[in-house]
Amino acid sequence: MLKIAELCVNLHPKLNKSMSMKQTRTICALFATIIILTSCASSSSEVTLYSDASITAFTLGKLNRYTETLDSDGVPQTKKTTFSAGAYRFVIDQVNRKIYNNDSLPVGTDVAHVLCTISTANNGVALFEDLKEEDTYYYYSSADSIDFTSPRTVRVMSSDGKGYTEYTIQINVHEEDGDKFEWNALDGSIQVQAMRGLKTLYQKKTIFLFCDLDGKTQVYRVDDNRNWDKIAQSMNFSSDAWKNVAVMDNVFYLFDGGILYKSDDGNEWTLVNFTAEQPVKQLIGASTYELYALSGSNQIMASRDGGESWKVEKNDMPEKLPTEDITMVSYPVYMADNCEQVIMVGNLESGANEEYAVVWRKIVDFDNFDLGGTWTYMDRGSMTEFLLPRYDHYNLLAYEDYLLAFGKLPESKSKGKPYTTILQSRDNGITWKEKKGVFVFPENMANTNATTISSVVDKNKNIWLFCIGTGEIWKGRLNRAAWTYK
């Protein structure tokens, strides 16, 4: 550590005639900083100086954002807004001397005029390298606007003047709007157009289509490159077998005529000998390690050994268990370790005259897996606002950290538009709302004559729609769903 007087002696020999004007300006800037730091001290006071030269914190202030919108006449307009960017955390890599934000700023953020706060250890002095003049640095001030359209070099001088450390600061900005969802129409399919029923499943980077075609259940597959292939099966399944198929741990399970089968590829099928507490009526889905079925008395049963044994699951309102249009998804419980949510959606029997779907939930605790679990009916009582309407042929998708659901409106309510609304639930199926402008059907599909739509999500977070009756195939993705965070 040095005192101010010693610092002046150490720096003075550097000020010689051989020094360039750029170097002189740099040293002068440093002296000006020292004067500012010591202006409140009397000439007889001694100030302790340090050799530390590091940045300890970097934060952003309010920033401008420019987005493109359309006015009421459809004319493009540029809209300016201001937001506080202080919540965006910056990583300070002290080993590689890099500072950056993992969570990129919104698209359209103006980073050419940035107000930021830089904290240094023990009054180290931060100097920004000039963008135009090489080897020239100027004193940083939190009141000055700084251009971060490209990575900036910051030199931190220790307060004793003996050394410095250089950092590279990079502010990352998204190049696309995260809330934008775009659909792309793919080549139609004559096979899809002719199907009478369809269930789509995703396994090993491939979409499998179990369908009712020509009076029997057939299997097709399509990969990410849209290469189609009909699978020649080792078994002849009935026309309704496609309704009773599930995939668990990359293995397909199919229930047909009271017999359970399994297959690794949808081609070769083997018999699964099983025992059950009640007769199995319908296979309804799977989670990570459990298969689910309905019994002949409409009880939920689960198998934890690949379908070899089935036990009745507990439930709190058996009269509210669905009997028609049943679908389910599973996903991790984000606020708990080793737990999984299983959401089941369906309808009560047609004669019940119910206007809304029934939604059930189960929490699978892997730490107590052998104990099974209890299904809970998502009962809203007399409240009907934001309930999931009754649809035919439900589609239920786990997408990002929420659920999406849609189906075909009954003919009495469709008014020629059977598929119009995609609903979103951010509370695990309790309430369902429209995300207008984001999750909507493709514009050209709003008046489709599709008799049924089946959907699936692939590994790249694309949602695929297969439209029976028209043969349309659509593929779309929410931009931010594909973003990776390092």
Describe the protein's architecture and organization:
The protein has 486 residues and is mainly beta. The chain has 4 helices and 36 strands. The strands form 9 sheets. Strands 4-5-10-9-7-8 form a 6-stranded mixed sheet, with helices on one face. Strands 20-24-23-22-21 form a 5-stranded mixed sheet, with no helix packed on it. It is elongated and about 95 Å long.
Q: What tags apply to this protein structure?
A:
six-stranded mixed beta sheet; 486 residues; mainly beta; 36 strands; elongated; five-stranded mixed beta sheet; 4 helices
Give the SSE map.
Blueprint: H1 4-11, H2 21-38, E1 55-60, E2 62-70, E3 76-84, E4 90-93, E5 98-101, E6 116-120, E7 125-129, E8 137-139, E9 152-157, E10 164-170, E11 181-186, H3 190-194, E12 197-203, E13 206-213, E14 216-223, E15 228-231, E16 245-248, E17 251-256, E18 259-263, E19 270-272, E20 275-276, E21 280-286, E22 291-295, E23 300-303, E24 309-312, E25 314-315, E26 324-332, E27 339-347, E28 358-365, E29 374-377, E30 392-399, E31 402-408, H4 411-414, E32 423-425, E33 433-434, E34 452-457, E35 463-468, E36 473-478
Parallel strand pairs: 5-10, 20-24, 25-29
Antiparallel strand pairs: 1-6, 2-3, 4-5, 7-8, 7-9, 9-10, 11-36, 12-13, 13-14, 14-15, 16-17, 17-18, 18-19, 21-22, 22-23, 23-24, 26-27, 27-28, 28-29, 30-31, 31-32, 32-33, 34-35, 35-36
